[in-house]
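re: ur question from earlier - yeah i can do the single chain one, its not a big deal. heres the input i used so u can compare w yours
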Amino acid sequence: QVHLVESGGDLVQAGGSLRLSCGSSEGIFSIDGMGWYRQAPMKQRELVASITRAGRTHYADSVKGRFTISRDNANNMMYLQMNNLKPEDTAVYYCNANTYPSSWGQGTQVTVSS
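and the output i got, formated as tokens:
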């Protein structure tokens, strides 16, 4: 398990952009799967995007074409670039690493106003 810390959440108008960052206390090079999840009020946590060590990515249909996930293994960082934000993107965003047990950050709030 690794300690993850997210940052970059903010209040933004619809159509705006944000870049979320996730830093790890330990090396992530050996961790294959990492991803971003989000949880809106009264809703279940859902996968937003994931990325493998080799850089293979997967996106939820709702964010395809708007969000881009990336990782910097050398600096133990993962990012989520979010463009053309919509009010329905409002949620707490969590960083996850596929370790055993699974590693989670504390979350960062993203609020998109209409």
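The CA atoms of residues 39 and 45 lie 4 Å apart. not sure if urs matches, ping me
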